[in-house]
Amino acid sequence: MSKIKLGATLFTFTMEYANGTYSFEECVKKAAECGAEGYEIVAAQMIPSYPYVSDAFLGLVNDCKEKYGIGPICYSASNDLGMRHDRNLTEDELLKAAITDIQSAHKLGCRVLRAQFVIPPSVLEKLAPYAELYDVKVGIEIHNPETPSTPYIQENLAVVKRTGSKHIGFIPDFGCFATKPNKPHWDKAIKAGASEEHLQIAAEMRYADEPLESVMTKMKELHASPAIFPAVQGMYGFVQFRKEWDKEGLKAIIPYTFEFHAKYHWMFENNKEASIPYEEILPVIQESDFEGYIMSEFENEAYISGYDMLKRHIKMEKEILGMSSC
Question: Domain span at residue 152?
Answer without folding.
Answer: 2-179+240-319
